[in-house]
Amino acid sequence: MRLRRSAALAATGVFAILPLIGGSAAAAGPNTQAAREAAEHARIVAYWTPARMKAAVPRDYVIDRTGQGHLNPLVRPGTGSNGNTTGASWPNGKGKVYKATGKVYFEMGGGAWICSGTAITDKGSSYSVVLTAGHCVYDEENGNGSLAGFATNWMFIPQFDSKPTYTCENTEYGCWTARALVARREFATAGGFTTTATHYDWGFAVVGAGGLSGTAQLDATVGTFATTFSGMNGNTVVDAFGYPAAQKYHGSDLVYCQGPIGFDSLAGNGTYKLACGMTGGSSGGPWFSGFAQPDGSSTGDSGTIQSLNSYGYSGQSNMYGPKFNADTQATYDVANNGATANTLVP
Fold it and tell me: pTM here?
């Protein structure tokens, strides 16, 4: 796996759709569709046995000094400087961010993986939307732009920090499973974690009813955060969150970084850079602007998501994230309209 700094592969075509559940959703009545989605949710929850959850490893990318990309990075956590926070535990129970940010489990390429994600604002009454990294919903190395490259058995556990167990019924709020995953075609056809992939490394999961009852809506249970699809200026202060699981981190604690952003010159300044020592497992965690007051304090309830944890380089204590833009919004719009099938946009 190499981070190739070559020109992006061309991506064309229209939305591609693959039903997650057998049969025609259009032909089925709403009650039948709801029953099928409930059965699929129960199947995925049952699939994630404690043994499978314990065996899952981070799907995160770090690039070494030779340009070789590696999954499950072992980047050394940062120690902090200039008053910035580069990887501290977020206070237990503080604010909506504690509830809405969670842990993601999924299968891809024959392996079981973990990432991070966040419940975001949507217009649905029968579904919710979770934001995560593109490489946490689609296999950019082996998917070859086909719908078969999407993750399977995708599951989100909000507020994992308060009860970090390996069964949904013993977590604080339970689990939600994806009825549809949405990613950019440019990411899916990148052929690996290339420069193009870093520019499009976002993904959305549309989840139906779930939680401890199996019938709860995620939005109503944990709240959501808004997303903004416009760029940030250099030195904008952001707060990044996630569930890192490598080195000193164990994947059971909500961790955050706070500081001013820069840009990745090796990616053509097309992604953001933040001093942050979070490690594997944090991929997909949100970057907020407007989260903190000028003194750095925060209630944990405010802020707008404008990027996410995407990748790092070995020998650095930095995190990098994609620039949210019109392409991000187009991807989000498909999820926000309640997609019922895996979709590549455009």
Answer: 0.89
